[in-house]
């Protein structure tokens, strides 16, 4: 058994299908099946259970696959450590939900990096489930997942024991509107005032739930307007907020300078808004790097400034 064999079983577990894994690995199915059987024979247990829909790990197979992932990560870290350019490069990777305060913290973090060093920086906005998967597999070093407070127990089950977690922020969703919106001068709005407007979906709170929208309890759904427009691209969302004065989005709290830059206002809604949590995750076997700590320093600074502003005022000034 060698490192390539370990990569085979990790890819098979990820794909859930021998044929799909073989395709991803650019090899034929019989050879992959043979290699997996060889690993199973050497470790003395079945790693996968074959089903009509593909393959699923056995109970012992789950442990073997996790050992394989860990060995692959450690080998990659060893290679990285031994590279001559290691001291001259800053590496950082993060998957996080769409959020103004996280984006601002990331920008400030990049500005603070040593200008004399090469950069290998990855930042991707992603759903919570995809973030958990990619951090667990080792594709990203840090992740921030967003969930409803009521889903905290389910989140803990998803994270399991392989991922460390740390609460970043707990907050209530806010309504995001243009400064030209007739409601922009109000401190708070009611559900009735929003009902006649157009809701722009795919804001950063719509994708936060760990369950599908149609399977969430009624009290956890933010459903007010029957006029809804699905827009995923951020620039188009902002354009629509300005073009349609009645439009609005549910958003996490945004820093003042971003609101001023885009001509937007955030206000509270008297309707019952679910409480959300942003949680930092990273692998249990990983130590935070200097770059990781620098980013978290900026993240918590932005969070604290925004939290202080929210406590002082119920509405961001227009």
Automatic annotation (TrEMBL):
* Keywords in alphabetical order: DNA-binding, Transcription, Transcription regulation
Q: Which GO terms describe its cellular component?
A: protein-DNA complex
The superkingdom of the source organism is Bacteria
Question: How is this protein named in the record?
Answer: Transcriptional regulator
Q: Which organism's genome codes for this protein?
A: Thermobacillus composti (strain DSM 18247 / JCM 13945 / KWC4)
Carries keyword DNA-binding?
yes
One family name in Pfam for this protein = HTH_1
What protein family does this chain belong to? Belongs to the LysR transcriptional regulatory family.
Q: Where is the HTH lysR-type domain?
A: 1-58
**One Gene Ontology term of the molecular function aspect:** DNA-binding transcription factor activity
């Amino acid at each position: 058994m060698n490192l390539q064999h370990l990569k085979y079983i990790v890819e098979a577990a990820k794909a859930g299908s021998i044929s799909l894994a073989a395709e991803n690995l650019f090899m034929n199915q019989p050879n992959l099946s043979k290699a997996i059987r060889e690993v199973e024979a050497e470790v003395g247990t079945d790693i996968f259970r074959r089903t009509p829909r593909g393959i699923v790990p056995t109970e012992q197979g789950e442990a073997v696959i996790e050992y394989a992932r860990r060995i692959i990560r450690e080998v990659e870290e060893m290679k990285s450590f031994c590279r001559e350019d290691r001291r001259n490069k800053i590496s950082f990777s993060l998957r996080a939900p769409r959020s103004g305060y996280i984006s601002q913290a990331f920008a400030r973090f990049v500005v603070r990096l040593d200008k004399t060093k090469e950069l290998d920086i990855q930042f991707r906005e992603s759903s919570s489930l995809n973030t958990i998967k990619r951090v667990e597999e080792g594709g990203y070093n840090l992740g921030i997942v967003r969930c409803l407070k009521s889903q905290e127990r389910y989140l803990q089950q998803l994270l399991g024991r392989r991922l460390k977690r740390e609460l970043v922020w707990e907050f209530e969703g806010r309504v995001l509107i243009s400064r030209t919106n007739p409601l922009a001068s109000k401190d708070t709005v009611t559900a009735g005032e929003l009902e006649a407007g157009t809701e722009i979906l795919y804001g950063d709170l719509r994708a936060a739930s760990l369950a599908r929208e149609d399977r969430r309890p009624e009290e956890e759904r933010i459903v007010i307007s029957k006029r809804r427009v699905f827009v995923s691209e951020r620039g188009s969302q902002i354009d629509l907020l300005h073009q349609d004065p009645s439009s609005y989005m549910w958003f996490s709290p945004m820093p003042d300078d971003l609101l001023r830059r885009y001509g937007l206002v955030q206000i509270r809604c008297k309707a019952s808004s679910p409480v959300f949590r942003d949680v930092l995750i990273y692998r249990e076997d990983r130590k935070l790097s200097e770059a990781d700590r620098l980013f978290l320093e900026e993240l918590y600074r932005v969070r604290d400034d925004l939290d202080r502003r929210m406590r002082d005022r119920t509405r961001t000034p227009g």
